[in-house]
């Protein structure tokens, strides 16, 4: 222990720091040891100097990009999150969810690591709203870190009435799902312990393990059925897929555009790593999760190829919010580059959820019932996902879901 002058007591992790550099493998450092040290940050039990040293050692040894470290550290981050009444949450989800195909009606998330330097439109956030036309969405996000317009910045700028994201709290999350398919979990509200490391991250000047932990640390992880996760470097694809598998995920898709883009790219091929639930008579539950690797192109969705320059407005949140509004209102041409960029990412989340495996279609008015059964890479119905996403826009269902969410957040207590 080391005692600070202001009375704060810190845990001394010098023995671990000395083993971390320069060769943690030689010193038999374990992922559990690293995760336990990171857990001290969330309770303000690690000094700023040793916190910076830990993040620096992990960065320059590359151990912050190991699947076991990410899995263990994200588990600690979720344990340190604000406490949620999961029994109440799961009861509401069970009542509201609409199982279809191989989708069981659970919560879904779509998120990216950021940091790809392309400054593309907020595609995963927009896709999450479109997807809420059929799925229950638990979008975990924050304000901008490496771009001009983060997911929270965007949603709190949509007119005529912005969403009040800070009002969604552990105590109100079940109330939100009682009335809408969509919820945004604002990171500062659900991960209060992150405030202790924020100034240190700013001073270090490089991306740390926390830039990678965020997408793996959705506070309602225990209730998530399916997720799509974008990474900004292709070498991180198999790492994140393995981290998801180690964390117990059964439905997941990790993507990285060939341009090192943390979304499915509208400009060319996208590398994909999908968790696949397979039969395995030798395992206790008769199933195992394997990782399938393949590539996707815009043509696999029945869509056109567009240069990233056409979907990289690099605009301020208010301007991107207007684009989001126009997408949800169906005001963009059907072949608009940003719209098609959003459609393919939304379609992929539909595929991961399992809803595209439905053999009948009764979405509502405007649905001709003609399922697109064609299968593409990974043996999946990517074009069926696009059909559903276009229906959500054309019928106004996506706009309706968004407005229900906005109304709920504005009625919650500050």
Notable characteristics:
9 strands, two-stranded antiparallel ribbon, 414 residues, 2 domains, globular, 16 helices, Pyrimidine Nucleoside Phosphorylase, Chain A, domain 2, alpha/beta, 7-stranded mixed sheet, 38% helix
Characterization of the model:
The protein is α/β, with parallel strands linked by helices. It folds into two domains: 2-65, no CATH class; 86-411, 3-Layer(aba) Sandwich (Pyrimidine Nucleoside Phosphorylase, Chain A, domain 2), CATH 3.40.1030. 38% of the residues lie in helices and 13% in strands. The protein contains 16 helices and nine strands. It has helices at 14-20, 31-42, 48-61, 67-79, 86-96, 123-131, 151-155, 173-177, 187-190, 198-204, 209-213, 237-246, 317-328, 337-353, 382-394, 397-411, and strands at 2-3, 9-10, 107-112, 136-141, 182-186, 224-230, 252-257, 270-279, 287-296. The strands form two sheets. Strands 5-4-3-6-7-8-9 form a seven-stranded mixed β-sheet, with helices on both faces. The chain has a two-stranded antiparallel ribbon with strand order 1-2. β3 (107-112), α6 (123-131) and β4 form a beta-alpha-beta unit. α2 packs parallel to α4 and α4 (67-79) crosses α12. The longest helix is centred in the C-terminal third of the chain and has 17 residues, at 337-353. The radius of gyration is 21 Å and the shape is globular.
């Amino acid at each position: 222990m080391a005692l600070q002058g202001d009375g704060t007591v810190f845990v001394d992790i010098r023995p671990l720091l000395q083993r971390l550099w320069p060769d943690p493998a030689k010193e038999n450092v374990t992922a559990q040891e690293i995760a336990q040290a990171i857990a001290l940050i969330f309770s303000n039990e690690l000094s700023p100097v040793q916190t910076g040293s830990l993040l620096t050692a992990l960065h320059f040894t590359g151990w912050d990009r190991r699947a076991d470290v990410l899995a263990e550290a994200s588990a600690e981050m979720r344990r340190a999150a604000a406490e949620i009444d999961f029994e109440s949450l799961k009861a509401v989800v069970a009542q509201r969810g609409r199982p279809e195909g191989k989708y069981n009606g659970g919560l879904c998330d779509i998120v990216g690591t950021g940091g790809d330097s392309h400054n593309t439109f907020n595609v995963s956030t927009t896709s999450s709203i479109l997807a809420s036309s059929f799925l229950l969405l638990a979008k975990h996000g924050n304000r901008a870190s490496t771009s001009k317009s983060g997911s929270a910045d965007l949603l709190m700028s949509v007119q005529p009435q912005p969403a009040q994201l800070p009002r969604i709290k552990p105590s109100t999350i079940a109330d939100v799902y009682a009335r809408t398919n969509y919820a945004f979990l604002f990171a500062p509200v659900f991960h209060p312990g992150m405030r202790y490391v924020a100034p240190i991250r700013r001073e270090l000047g490089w991306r740390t393990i926390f830039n990678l932990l965020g997408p793996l640390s959705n506070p309602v992880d225990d209730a998530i059925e399916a997720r799509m996760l974008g990474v900004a470097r292709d070498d991180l694809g198999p790492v994140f897929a393995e981290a998801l598998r180690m964390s117990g995920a059964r439905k997941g898709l990790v993507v990285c555009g060939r341009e090192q883009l943390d979304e499915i790219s509208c400009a060319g091929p996208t590398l994909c790593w999908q968790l696949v639930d397979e039969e395995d008579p030798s395992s206790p539950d008769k199933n195992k999760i394997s990782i399938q690797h393949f590539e996707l192109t815009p043509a696999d969705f029945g869509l056109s190829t567009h240069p990233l320059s056409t979907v990289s407005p690099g605009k301020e949140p208010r301007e991107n919010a207007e684009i989001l509004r126009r997408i949800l209102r169906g005001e963009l041409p059907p072949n608009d580059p940003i719209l098609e960029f959003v459609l393919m990412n939304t379609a992929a989340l539909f595929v991961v959820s399992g809803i595209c495996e439905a053999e009948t279609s009764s979405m509502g008015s405007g649905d001709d019932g003609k399922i697109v059964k064609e299968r593409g890479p990974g043996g999946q119905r990517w074009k069926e996902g696009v059909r559903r996403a276009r229906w959500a826009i054309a019928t106004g269902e996506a706009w309706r879901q968004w407005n229900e969410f906005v109304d709920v957040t504005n009625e919650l207590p500050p």
